[in-house]
Amino acid sequence: MAAPFDDRDGSIWYDGKLVPWRSAQVHMLTHALHYGSSVFEGLRVYGGQIFKLREHTLRLIKSGEILGFTTPFTPDQIDAACRDVVKAQNIVDGYVRPLVWRGSEMMGVAAQQSKIHVAVAAWEWPSYFSPEARAKGIKMIISPWRRPAPDTAPVHAKAAGLYMICTLAKHQAEEQGAHDALMYDYRGFLAEATGANMFLVMDGKLHTPTADCFLNGITRLTIMDLARARGIEVIERHIKPDELAKAQEVFLTGTAAEITPVGQIAEYSFTPGRMTEQLTQDYTAATRGQKAAA
Questions:
Q1: What residue ranges in the chain does DSSP mark as E strands?
Q2: Cβ atoms of residues 193 and 217 within 8 Å
Q3: Which pTM was predicted?
Q4: With contact defined as beta carbons under 8 Å apart, do 50 and 44 qualify?
């Protein structure tokens, strides 16, 4: 079993400086721990370089604004912090986790005077799903939890509190022998997995749910650009659950998941195919700073 995340060697960037990993602590009365007032990002490192760093940093800051606080560091400072941590940890291929949260100055629902803290950690992290599962396509259940309506939660922020139902759905999937869960939106349309966006291949076109009540992923946008560069038509729309029967291929996208083929969702089965393979190759080239093969 891997070492717990609070007991590792190395350094974490914490409020402007690198500190020993085990010293990067917060008090138990931290507002974020009680009320979910924190935002975060996940970034991948490929060959020592952080992919889409500035895009993630800007989204981190925007997420904080949506939750009503200002991140006390500039985009340049956060970018530099991410690079410093990757260098300090000697990460060649791995994962970076910036976090912004309300501190312990106020304890209650209102916390306007709480100090805003920022930390960045990085560690080696292989594929989110096993190579064997990815080769066959992962198995998914349909979760009873739904993505909330945009007037009930800050759905366009990468806010920690929004992931509570994702944890519940992921645990339920694993208890049933699956790898992940598909979540509908509040209207009953397809939305996303517990930590990744989804795409469906239908008759040579790429369909993806409209990101109007869940996070419009940076990897999602990258894949859409790569598909269009290939001349593949990309259609964003509301997709009904029974349309899964029409899909020839299904895959997930996300910083952690990268491109992950799906083999089964409930009673629907899919075979990882040519479009998934091609876009995976193009994404791999993009993350390595290479030009996609013709």
A1: 11-14, 17-20, 38-40, 43-46, 49-50, 94-102, 116-123, 138-147, 180-185, 190-192, 197-202, 205-209, 234-237, 249-254, 258-265, 268-269
A2: no
A3: 0.94
A4: yes
Among 82, 105, 123, the domain-final residue is 123
Q: How far is Cα 254 from Cα 267, in angstroms, rounded to an integer? A: 24
Joined tokens for residue 108? 């209650």
The β-bridge relationship of strands 258-265 and 138-147 is: parallel
CA angle at 181 for the pair 178 and 185, rounded to the nearest 5°: 165
121 phi and psi, to 5 degrees? -125, 160
Residue 37: both structure tokens together: 């007032």
Q: How many domains does the chain have?
A: 2
Read off the DSSP letter of residue 90: T
Beta strands 197-202; 249-254: pairing state: antiparallel
**Which of 17, 158, 170, 291 is flagged as catalytic?**
158
Mean local confidence (pLDDT), 127-149: 90
The pair of structure tokens assigned to 23 is 């010293």
Here the tokens at position 13 are 């960037």
Q: What is the pLDDT of residues 207-265, one digit of tens each?
A: 999 999 999 999 999 999 999 999 999 999 999 999 999 999 999 999 999 999 999 99
Amino acid at 65: E
Scanning 158-243, the segments in alpha helix (DSSP H) are 164-175, 218-229
Last residue of some domain: 80, 98, 123?
123
- Supply 20's token pair: 């020993």
Contact present, 50 and 97 (Cβ < 8 Å): no
Rounded to whole angstroms, what are the CA distances from 288 to 3, 45, 54, 228? 29, 10, 16, 20
240 among known catalytic residues:
no
Same domain, residue pair 283 and 162: yes
Q: Domain limits at 195? A: 131-287
pLDDT tens readout for residues 52-72: 999 999 999 999 999 999 999
Q: How many Å separate Cα 157 from the centre of its chain?
A: 12
